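Review form for a predicted model. The reviewer records the input and the model, then writes brief findings.
Reviewer: anonymous (R2)
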Amino acid sequence: METRHVERVVVAMADAVPTAEELKRAIREVRSDILDIVTAIEDIRLQQIPQIRNDYAIKIGCWEKELLEAEIAARRSKRRYALMQAQANQGEAPDRKKIEEQLDQELAEWTEKAHEAEAAYEEALKWRMGRVALPEADAKEMHKLYRTLMKRLHPDVHVGEDEMRAEYFALAQQAYKDGDIAVLRSLEAATRRFDPKDDLEGMDDTEALSAELELQEIERSCMEKQLEELENSEDLQLGKLLQDPEWVSSRTMELKEAIEGWERVQREYDRRVARLKEEADGS
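Model under review:
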């Protein structure tokens, strides 16, 4: 994102005392930069990252879920065989009900992970099916509406202000995350009374204005750092990988091969268990 370099104004005025109007213009530009940066951060958090995580669940997560289930089934079969063989070595008939109860206990944590993976995958499917692709014009309007609402409501812009503003902002966040342009339009109409007043109007104290400009530049620098960290986050790097068909295909193939490996293990121990059952029934 391109940031206005108000520093040029300050440097240019180094040999002359800046006027109040020059300082106010510089402050407004920095504040506009901050709003752009905050909007970009919100876009990444509410739009891009959820979409990336959903894409991962659909393209890769489904296979990771299958791999986990295949591994649990193989471990259960292998452990079942070990317990039955131990009883057989002691001359005891396998207590199959007791063995299955023990397996349930031993694999409870793994089973819970499998249930969580299943639920996450189903949630991703519901999220995808509930999303409606917006036309380009609507997508641009949604972004513009959200930026307007950010200017009116965002807590970083309006520190310590009323609870109603915070409640409206939470609604705007959810609507933007859901891609609900109708709600954003409604909120834009309902929050016009929150349009920020120009707190610089009528200020002529150049010392106070210079101090405010310095504070705003510090704030902009902090927000730029946050944005840079987000842009280099694991989620966004993963998003780039998911756009690479070769990477998706390669990762999918790795998972499929791992699944087949655990399935072979399960089949082998299922055969051994069946043989022990035959021997026990025969005796």
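Findings: The chain has ten helices and no strands.
Further findings: The mean pLDDT is 89.
Recommendation: see findings above.
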